[in-house]
Amino acid sequence: MIVFARIIDGPLGAETERATRANHSAPDGPAGTDCAASVARTSAECAPPDGHAGTKRALSDGRAGAVVRFEGVVRELEPSATGTSDERTLIALDYETYDPMAQRELESLARSVASEHGLLSIVVLHSRGRVAVGETSFLLTVTAPHRAEALRALGEFIDRLKQDVPIWKRPVWAS
Amino acid sequence: MTLEVFIFGASAMQVRHDRVAVTVSDAPTAAEVLAALAKQHPVLNVEGIAARLAVNHTFATAETPIRPGDEVALIALVCGG
């Protein structure tokens, strides 16, 4: 099981491009790295140095039947206050994290969801700091033997992220 | 004793500061600190937002003891993703 979770400064546009390239390029050989070897031989948990390489390795082991990627993008309109339906126009969101707890909880959540749903890999990236409207602030990629567990895991991860990972967003209003 | 409690997000915007001071007994539990926060800083709406405490970067249970020097943070209404 490959688990990779990181909080990264700024928007994740470059990361989404790297994720796309990783998903569509030829897989590594099974003995490409120690991490790939442990996945192939023992399913032991390992954290590759690059998350997208982790997805690629999971896809290369022959058991993967589903790869699902979710990107969270900053919307132009947000409620003007908690609990209201009135919306205001944003120029960006400032993501505030409580470090190092946020990183630790993100990783712990990834490990927990991957284990509970039998995932082959889970790669999650979250922005810290300012992310403009239209840019990506959250990227989650899971691989699993079948689509059902991949889709369930994705939904559950996002629900629990909003309960347990100390990340807040502050709106930067257009006016 | 007086504890400093870190606050974030909407709570920090509400009080325009990143921490608040709260007066508690000498050996409080996390539940006692939350109760003191609710009483001494009603603007934080601690009871209304199902807030939890983190002690030294780990979620506390109601019974978790708070000791002098611990880093205490109010974790409420997180909204990542």
Topology:
The complex is a heterodimer of chains A (about 180) and B (about 80).
Chain A lengths: L1 E8 L3 H12 L9 H9 L8 H10 L5 E8 L3 E3 L7 E11 L3 H17 L3 E12 L3 E9 L2 H18 L2 E7 L2
Parallel strand pairs in A: 1-5
Antiparallel strand pairs in A: 2-6, 3-4, 4-5, 4-7, 5-6
Chain B lengths: L1 E5 L2 H7 L3 E5 L6 H11 L11 E4 L2 E2 L12 E4 L6
Parallel strand pairs in B: 1-5
Antiparallel strand pairs in B: 1-2, 3-4, 3-5
Features:
heterodimer, A: 175 residues, alpha+beta, Aldehyde Oxidoreductase, domain 3, seven-stranded mixed beta sheet, 5 helices, 38% helix, globular, B: 81 residues, five-stranded mixed beta sheet, 2 helices
Head-to-tail CA distance between termini of chain B: 37 Å
Biggest pleated sheet of chain B: 5 strands, mixed
Task: Give the overall silhouette of chain A.
Answer: globular
Q: Report the radius of gyration of chain A as a whole number of Å.
A: 17 Å
Stretches of chain B where pLDDT is under 50 for at least 5 consecutive residues are none
Report the helical percentage of chain B: 10-25%
Instruction: Estimate the strand proportion of chain A.
Output: 25-35%
Largest interface (CB < 8 Å): A-B, 22 and 16 residues
Taking the sheet with the most strands of chain A, its summary is: 7 strands, mixed
Average of per-residue pLDDT values of chain B:
92
The dominant shape of chain B is: globular
Q: Which strand order does the major sheet of chain B show?
A: 2-1-5-3-4
CATH class of chain A: Alpha Beta
Quaternary state of this entry equals heterodimer
Mean pLDDT, all residues of chain A: 85
Low-confidence blocks of residues of chain A: 29-44
